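Appendix C: a fully annotated inverse folding record. The material below is reproduced so that readers can follow the format used throughout the book. The structure is listed first as tokens, followed by the designed sequence.
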């Protein structure tokens, strides 16, 4: 049955002052979701000490990641059909509900369940914040502003660990979840006051079957990637088999409905396809640094925990800087130029880390991380801005969300692949030094792929000439 709620489209562009306030609200929403990972990770030792069940430790993160990943493209498509604001409210409200409940959890299974609610809401927050910003700025302005919005990830990565440690040690671990409440409520209130959409009198048919197939197929495959080593073999193979079949049926189904939940036709556009593949690649490469560089610095170089944190922090600082610069540079050059700079940064950083030895020292490790951060900032901003410029308003939510979805999938695949490289090396008798060092061969391969994709971009296209 068709749903007769009107879709929405942009009304008269808001004034400069209102746009700034809308941007501020979107930055707050992005920070709220981005800081979640680092702030919770820092406080987990305190949480486990109180709640127990250490064997469920990883599920606190998986329960958040899996529903977030699966729901991202669903929220993006619904925002195209029914308007950004109402879908953002639904997702942000669910996120804040989950955050509130997490603070009241008194057992690990309860916390995991509430984290799943949080994750279901998080799937809307970041992609729709980016989509709203994409709606209210021109293509040229969008490059500058989206770069600024992307830099929020770096800021969150810097603030999150120290904030999480402070709240867990001096307030209560529940506060790491409740700190989201005033930020999220303020962002929603600001969007209510300043962001307007104009209803369009057109009915839509929700692709319920597509949403169910995506949830089952994507969820099971992501579960196999994220929790594969800890799952019984029979259950693992069942997840892969059932998930693969569900995704195959989804691909068949989506080509036969008028308003598919996943509009695969978008991937026929060269910039959408290249940006999606690029986001997958940088997501995978990032896990080699985030997941394993601190361990190398701590266990192989035998440096302090502070030193390992500084090495990783170097990446987040340059990521924020590069995101800010990329938006301005692409206005003067092209998408191809900034994506190529990003690919060069990723490849050179991976090569520096590949050449790292136990005696290289903190400066060497930080230099590699800094170069990777520069590459991430340039690539991520370029992919986002180009995707939004490549499609019309009624497909911008789906295009933005699909790009972010590919990065999340890349992170999951990367974590699985890098972990497999280390585990295989250790099982063959290689020392830890060699096992952790070998994974940067894989990181270098992803860097080469990112650069190759950048060189496939059409020449001359940029925010001032996107089609």
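Designed amino acids, in order:
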């Amino acid at each position: 049955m068709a749903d007769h709620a009107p879709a929405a489209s942009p009304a008269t562009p808001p004034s400069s002052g209102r746009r700034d306030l809308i941007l501020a609200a979107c930055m707050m929403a992005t920070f709220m979701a981005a800081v979640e990972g680092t702030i919770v990770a820092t406080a987990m030792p305190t949480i486990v000490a109180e709640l127990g069940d250490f064997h469920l430790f990883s599920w606190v993160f998986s329960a958040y990641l899996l529903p977030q990943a699966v729901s991202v493209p669903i929220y993006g498509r619904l925002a195209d059909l029914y308007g950004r604001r109402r879908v953002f409210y639904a997702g942000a409200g669910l996120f804040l509900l989950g955050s509130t409940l997490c603070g009241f959890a008194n057992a690990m299974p309860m916390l995991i369940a509430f984290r799943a609610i949080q994750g279901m809401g998080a799937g809307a927050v970041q992609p729709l914040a980016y989509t709203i910003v994409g709606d209210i700025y021109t293509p040229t302005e969008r490059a500058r502003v989206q770069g600024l919005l992307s830099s929020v990830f770096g800021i969150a990565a810097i603030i999150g660990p120290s904030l999480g440690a402070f709240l867990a040690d001096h307030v209560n671990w529940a506060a790491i979840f409740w700190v989201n409440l005033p930020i999220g409520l303020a962002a929603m209130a600001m969007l209510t006051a300043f962001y307007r959409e104009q209803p369009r009198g057109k009915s839509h048919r929700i692709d319920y079957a597509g949403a169910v197939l995506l949830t089952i197929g994507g969820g099971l495959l992501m579960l196999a990637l994220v929790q594969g080593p800890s799952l019984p073999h029979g259950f693992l193979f069942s997840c892969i088999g059932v998930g693969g079949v569900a995704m195959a049926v989804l691909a068949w189904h989506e080509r036969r409905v008028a308003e598919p939940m996943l509009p695969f036709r978008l991937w026929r556009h060269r910039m959408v396809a290249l940006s999606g593949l690029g986001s997958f690649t940088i997501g995978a490469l990032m896990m080699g640094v985030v997941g394993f560089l601190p361990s190398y610095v701590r266990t192989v170089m035998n440096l302090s925990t502070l030193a390992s944190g500084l090495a990783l922090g170097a990446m987040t600082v340059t990521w924020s800087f590069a995101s800010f610069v990329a938006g301005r540079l692409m206005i003067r050059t092209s998408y191809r130029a900034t994506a190529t700079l990003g690919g060069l940064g990723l490849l050179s950083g991976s090569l520096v880390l590949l050449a790292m030895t136990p005696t290289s020292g903190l400066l060497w490790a930080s230099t590699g991380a800094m170069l990777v951060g520069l590459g991430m900032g340039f690539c991520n901003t370029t992919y986002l801005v180009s995707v939004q410029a490549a499609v019309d308003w009624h497909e911008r939510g789906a295009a933005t969300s699909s790009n972010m979805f590919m990065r999340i999938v890349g992170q999951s695949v990367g974590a699985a692949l890098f972990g497999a490289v280390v585990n295989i090396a250790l099982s063959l008798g290689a020392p830890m030094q060699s096992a952790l060092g070998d994974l940067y061969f894989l990181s270098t391969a992803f860097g080469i792929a990112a650069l190759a994709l950048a060189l496939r971009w059409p020449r001359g296209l940029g925010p001032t000439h996107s089609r």
